[in-house]
Amino acid sequence: MNHLPQAWGRPRDDIYGHYNPAYLPSSHGGTQNPSALPTTHTQSPIVTGTSVVAVKFQDGVVIAADNLASYGSLARFTDVKRLKRFNRKAVVGFGGDVSDMQYIDRLLLSLDVEENYGGASSSPDDDATKDDKSLMGANNLHTYLSKVMYKRRSDFNPLWNALLVAGIDDKNTPFLASADLLGTTYSAPTLATGFGAHLAQPILRTVVPDESHVKDLTKEKAVEAVRECMKVLFYRDARSMPAYSLAVIDGKGVELSTDEKLEGQSWAFAETIRGYGTQTV
Amino acid sequence: DGTNRRAPQTSIGTGYDLSNSVFSPDGRNFQVEYATKAVENGGTAVGIRCKDGVVLALEKIVTSKLLKKDANKRIATVDRNMGVVHSGLVPDGRHFVSRARDEASSWRGTYKAPIPASALANRMGAYVQAYTLYNSVRPFGITAIVGGYDAETEVDVDGAVGSGPKMGSGGKTPGAKEGGPYLYMIEPSGLYWGYYGAATGKGRQAAKAELEKLNLDPSKGEVIGLEEGVKEAARIIYAAHEDSKDKEFELEMTWVSAVNGPTKGRHEEVPKELREEAERLAKKALEGEDDMEE
Known about the structure:
Chain A is α+β, with helices and mostly antiparallel strands. Chain A is about 25% helix and about 25% strand.
């Protein structure tokens, strides 16, 4: 048995004849003619980002993700911005493979350039009072991204990401939805990817249990809840870090800050812990 | 016309003007010269390279009262920071713009950064020139003016996720000036030059005469600013229209500035208020001229 998939589960030679090794590497009796090789795709993420968390509030959405790109368990890159502004109505938060995130980011950039050819303006400082009916809302962006993700997984060549699309839709109401490497999509007033789905969602749901509570949540309370989630995630997720990015998207546009720091961590209690049971000093 | 093109009457009946890419005995491609004739019938288009940006302007003849005002835009954006205005066969212009957009996008695909205006002009010049090489295609029936602002500030590499090393990318010379406003004009032959001010279309003679009066050459003192450029562009289009006064026209104007300028580095339509102010001044200037003549 070796690591080459073609060696797994071989049918019996005495019944089915010898396996044609032509496409194998020359070390395994193949001819290594590239045109005869089967199509293969990268099937595992390398450099990765962890959770993205987001919550809707009365006027818009708050979204956050830390600035770490891990290389396995190594905290390799510590200034990686995983929230990407699309236009003044939408931000995308990326978890998962960072090279695929860069690819999607470039895809979004070319999409925005082409959207502008139609006459819409996504200039960062345009005020929202301008006629912006033709500007893509976060819902349009989410539809686009989910189609890209689903196409790629259907080609057996997925983009290894979990995305949250946050912003306001074409009717200027808060919009939050997710899309992942399988092309699965769903929407909820609070969303989180990766570890966040296990640790942040329960906290956010105490603030916004269902859609009817969104209109009661102020921007300040929403930001506070998201900051609390980032802290819990840093306490308990070994692939997270305390520097993070946070964005607020509402009718006024996008406020994106990329150098937030966790505050008010509680570690004083650690002094009182001794050993694992019987130890007292 | 400034260039010394001879009238092509001599070519008729000789057989050297029937097919594109054929050299006449004195080394001319008559089909390209005929394409230039198509340009000379188009509405006047001008481009002005100002100190802090570029202005593009176009005289759009209103052929029918049934056409909606301020619709059917003809000046196109390429990438975010460049504009194309053309005179001649409108569909040829649209094809030109479409190709320019593809070139800009493919440049980004390779270099992960916006295409410099000079590179775009070069590629589009080569593309137009290719349509003079074969008898199975006809030359472009347009002259295009390409204006853009290359970023002076360091631009992010597309898709970059981190801040990267503190040193400049690719090893930069401190204080070296990069970017700025650029203006090119591409003719049906594929010929293109960089210009301080460019004009094409029916009223190009009058427009060029006006452009030459402006301070556009940085080696000869202070070059005019962008807002002044807008007002001059409007005035020049109005002045160039004097010869075909009987026809109504609409003025279309766009501009592009540096990141810290009024358009924030993007190619955009000139705001309505500023355009209307420029048109008011242009009309006033024309009336002033009439008074002097009387």
